[in-house]
Design brief:
The chain is α/β, with parallel strands linked by helices. The chain has a domain at 61-133: 2-Layer Sandwich (Nucleotidyltransferase, domain 5). It contains 4 helices and 5 strands. Strand 1 (64-68) and strand 2 form a beta hairpin. It starts with 18 loop residues before the first helix and ends with a strand.
Length: 136
C-alpha cells in the first residue's frame, strides 16, 4: 500500500496542450488556400459616363439620333433613311466636331438591323455609339 498515492485535486494540476491542434489548423488552412482555384470571370465592358464630366458640355453638341423600328425602318429626323444612309449622315458630323451618336431601339426590333446601324456609325467615324430603348 505504500506505492499507492492519494490523489487529491489540490495535489496535481493537469494542462491540455493545444499546440498540436493549432499546428493542424494552420496546416489545413494552408492546404485549402493552396488548392483553391481562383477563376476570373470575363464579362462585357460597359461604357459608363464619366461622373466628373460637365453634363452641360455634352448638351451643347448636336445629338445625332437614329431610331430603329420594329418594322425595319431606320429613322433620322423623322424620315426613313435606311441603313445605307447612316454612314453618310454620321461622317460629316464627325468631320466638323465630335457629336454624340445615339441609336434608339424599339422593343422587338431586329437585332441584326441594330448591329448594322451601329456598324455604319462606327464606319462613319463615330468613336462611341450609345444604344437606348425607345419609348413607345
Amino acid at each position: 500500500m505504500r506505492n499507492r498515492k492519494n490523489l487529491n485535486a489540490s495535489d496535481e494540476t493537469t494542462d491540455i496542450n493545444i499546440s498540436p491542434l493549432i499546428d493542424m489548423v494552420f496546416i489545413l488552412l494552408i492546404f485549402f488556400i493552396v488548392t483553391t482555384v481562383f477563376v476570373e470571370e470575363s464579362g462585357l465592358a460597359a461604357n459608363t459616363p464619366d461622373p466628373t464630366s460637365n453634363p452641360e458640355q455634352n448638351e451643347e453638341k448636336e445629338l445625332v439620333s437614329f431610331l430603329v423600328r420594329r418594322n425595319g425602318q431606320v429613322i433620322y429626323k423623322e424620315r426613313d433613311v435606311g441603313v445605307g444612309a447612316v454612314r453618310g449622315i454620321v461622317a460629316p458630323a464627325m468631320r466638323q466636331e465630335e457629336h454624340p451618336i445615339t441609336v434608339n431601339v424599339e422593343p422587338q426590333a431586329q437585332m441584326r438591323l441594330v448591329v448594322a446601324v451601329i456598324d455604319e456609325c462606327k464606319s462613319g467615324g463615330a468613336p462611341q455609339v450609345t444604344m437606348k430603348a425607345a419609348s413607345e
